[in-house]
Design a protein that fits this description.
Elements: H1 40-45, E1 59-64, H2 72-87, E2 92-97, H3 105-114, E3 119-122, H4 147-156, H5 158-169, E4 174-188, E5 202-205, H6 209-216, E6 221-224, H7 230-236, E7 241-245, H8 246-251, E8 260-263, E9 268-275, H9 277-281, H10 285-318, E10 326-329, H11 332-353, H12 356-372
Parallel strand pairs: 1-2, 1-3, 5-6, 8-10
Antiparallel strand pairs: 3-9, 4-7, 4-8, 4-9
Bound molecules: ligand 6CS.
Ligand 6CS is lined by residues 66-67, 105, 123, 181, 206, 227, 244-245, 248, 269.
Length: 373
């Protein structure tokens, strides 16, 4: 890990994770109200701090992420956990997990749906197979290039925060917030400047079928892979390129095994703060209020984290002389050639991938985006 600016919190758990031995006081299954512990130690904990909300009992929760310490998702979850602990006067303790201990990203989403973990940072790119409508985030050039505008839409969109959230909930996942991890860029074993450069190109993607469709539209041969296997796959030529925000490319050292990088800004990386809905709905109101308040407070924090990491780490890629990577930036004209090929994928999404509910959500989102530009 090359980037260690963001503090990490001592709530980090060991990666060995016993799914059945939750060690918590709350029952995540069923619809009934969660009953907290009320042991004397906990009562003491509740006296700590000054501005915390008065809540009864104690809560031990698990929060899984798809990233490692020092990376955006993990640092978000660590700060989220710290805030919950402070606001509850020590009554809420959250163990934050780096990626890797629970299987693949797709496995982690399933752990949340089953209630084996309470919270997860989830990328829509790994759940598109089940929540088809979530693949809206796979569409290139849909959101504004200006990330602040994009984040504003993610924060306020009714299409996303009401309609898409409702669809997610029917699949046992409740997104509490959508937030960007930054603009996505390409790396490749060859220069990627025009659609012709993608002809037959073995592009690593996340699992969602529409991400793959987006690359087929450029003529590429997309291959689904967990990022855990990506460095080796790039190194051995199993895949020839990939997309990610700059911070992730640098911190996972993908540039070391890629000769080329393209500042393409073809999409932004969206992550979701999610919770198991049965667990969340069963919490006492005052506990849920603490979670909701924390979700709101984390929006600007997440934006600043990704901004600082993405801005500061590009130079590190450019200046790496041991394993040099040629970095090019697409002109607006060059981007237009990709945009033209990407537009029909929107119709495919609307007409072939989702049903009436998804279509309505998408049309409202398009209006919201147009109003923001
Ligand atoms: O490319 C991926 O799959 C990974 N990228 C990021 C920015 N976060 C986690 C995700 O699994």
């Amino acid at each position: 890990m090359l980037f260690k600016k963001w503090k990490t919190v001592s709530l980090v758990g060991a990666l060995t994770f016993a799914l059945t031995a939750c060690g918590g006081s709350d029952d995540v299954g069923g619809d009934e109200q969660v009953e907290p512990d009320t042991d004397p130690a906990t009562e003491e904990n509740n006296d700590a701090g000054s501005d915390e909300a008065a809540i009864e009992g104690s809560y031990d929760w698990r929060f899984v992420t798809e990233e490692m310490q020092g990376q955006v998702q993990y640092e978000y979850a660590a700060e989220f956990a710290e805030k919950l602990n402070e606001k509850s006067g020590g009554a809420i303790n959250v163990e934050v997990y780096e990626f890797g201990g629970l299987g693949s990203e797709v496995d982690q989403a399933e752990q949340l749906q089953m209630g084996a973990v309470e919270f997860a940072i989830m990328s829509p790119g790994f759940v598109g197979g089940t929540v088809k409508e979530s693949q809206v985030f796979a569409l290139h050039y849909l959101f504004p290039d200006d990330l602040e505008k994009t984040q504003e839409i993610l924060n306020t969109s009714e299409a996303l925060n009401t309609q898409l959230v409702g669809i997610f909930e029917s699949h046992g996942i409740k997104p509490l917030a959508f937030w960007t991890e930054g603009a996505m860029q390409w790396t490749g074993s060859r220069e990627l400047r025009t659609p012709a450069d993608f002809e037959g190109f073995k592009m690593r993607t996340q699992a969602s079928p529409l991400i793959q469709e987006s690359y087929r539209a450029y003529g590429a041969a997309p291959e689904e892979l967990s990022w855990a296997e990506l460095y080796t796959a790039l190194d051995r030529g199993v895949v020839e390129g990939q997309e990610n925000p700059i911070f992730f490319i640098e911190d996972e050292s993908f540039h070391e095994v890629q000769d080329h990088m393209t500042i393409s800004n073809h999409n932004n990386y969206v992550a979701m703060t999610t919770v198991n809905p049965t667990f969340y709905n069963g919490l006492p109101d005052e506990v849920r209020a603490i979670i909701d308040e924390t979700v709101e407070e984390m929006r600007p924090v997440a934006f600043e984290m990704q901004k600082e990491m993405n801005e500061s780490l590009l130079d590190s890629i450019k200046e790496n002389e041991d394993t040099p990577t040629a970095v090019i930036e697409l002109t607006e004209e060059e981007r237009e050639a990709f945009r033209e090929l990407a537009l029909p994928v929107r119709d495919y999404f609307k007409n072939e991938v989702v049903g009436e509910e998804g279509r309505e959500m998408f049309e409202l989102l398009e209006q919201e985006i147009a109003a923001q530009q």
